[in-house]
Amino acid sequence: MSLLNGVVIDKIIADGDLDGLIAASILKAYFSEAKTFFAHPAEIRNGNLDQIIDRNTAICDLPFHPNCGLYLDHHSTNKPTDSELEVFSLEGGTCAWYPVDSAARVAFDLCSKEIDLSHLETFMEMVDKLDSGKISLAEFNSDDPILWLSKTINLEDLDYVYLLLDWFSSGKAVDKILTSEEVTSRINTIKQKQTELRRIIIENGEVIDRIAIVKMHDTGHRTNGYLVTSTFGDECDACIIVHGFSDGVIGDHSRYPLSASFYCNSFLHRNQGVFNLTKLAQAFDENGGGHYNACGCRIMPLEEGKVTKRNVIQSDIDKNLEEWLKIWSSRN
What are phi and psi of 120, to 5 degrees? Predict the structure, then answer.
């Protein structure tokens, strides 16, 4: 019997990256009438979407919500506890949390038994690699169109994201998607900007105790761990990227709050890295989390190394970094 037997879904909420998009597309192919929403993890944790989450809602590649009807994910820190899962199941919820390389893989393995997803079969390999930190440096520096597609997905460009959702969920051939004008024009723009982005990373970055720290907040620029660790190379075992805006608000996809992302240098360390980075992401932000080798949190207001009740200010960035470096040093 399928895990999805009897499950009725009219809303899908997914993370706004490639993994979330493909997971949502697969669910959309199965639940064809469902309306899809894209969100950041902080929006789920902050309660921004509580008003639309009910037993007819599927959530994928995002933190667990007890009021949803179907939960799909693979992040270690998002796994429901045994007690949460017991209550969730008793109240009619269905959970598909598996320790695989991507949330899209959870959705693919679940739905491909009942619907034709053959158009995504080869595509899934790169989705898994990208989301689990298993791509090689050669692959990252290549012209692989799936890798470059992943860089075009941005919640500030929602019409485009929904176009991709429609294409992937309807079974459009992947090669036609990757060679479409909508995709190639965005890829070309990003390729032109990448050299400049590397320069910004170098100018705003430093390596302390083998962890690269890049401050990109209030610049309007964003990057990921792959670009930072490939830029600093063998000098770093991991990186911290500070991004967002001093006046940012959770839920505003174009101006989100001051945050930090943590990534293992997966080009050097292929098996989860030298340290569990969720210890940094969850040190002060109770809603921080993700994978051991890739996670994130908000910058929190700190006084003497402890969270305090006030608004976040610029000096909190260095206070958070100081405490994270202390925790990082314990790896030795």
Answer: -105, 0
Q: What is the pLDDT of residues 259-314, one digit of tens each?
A: 999 999 999 998 778 999 999 999 999 889 999 999 999 999 999 999 999 999 99
Q: Which of 179, 149, 188, 184 is nearest to 25 (CA)?
A: 149
d(CA 243, CA 246): 9
Tokens in use for 25? 């597309």
Predicted TM-score (pTM) of the model is: 0.93
Q: Where are the beta strands (DSSP E) in the chain?
A: 11-15, 35-39, 57-60, 70-73, 94-97, 205-208, 211-215, 238-243, 259-264, 289-290, 294-298, 302-303, 306-307
- What is the phi/psi pair of residue 328, to 5°? -60, -40
220: region left, alpha or beta (phi > 0 left; psi from -120 to 50 alpha): left
* Domains, the chain, with CATH or none: 11-181 (no CATH), 204-329 (3.10.310)
- DSSP helix/strand/coil, 50: helix
DSSP 275-315: S-THHHHTSS-TT-EE-SSEEEEE---EETTEE-SS---TH
> If 0-12 CB within 10 Å is exposed, 13-18 middle and 19+ buried, where does residue 184 land?
middle
Structure tokens at 152: 């075009």
Q: Give residue 51's Cα distance to chain centre.
A: 23
Task: State how far the Cα of 311 lies from the Cα of 215, in Å rounded to an integer.
Answer: 20
Determine the length of the chain.
Answer: 332
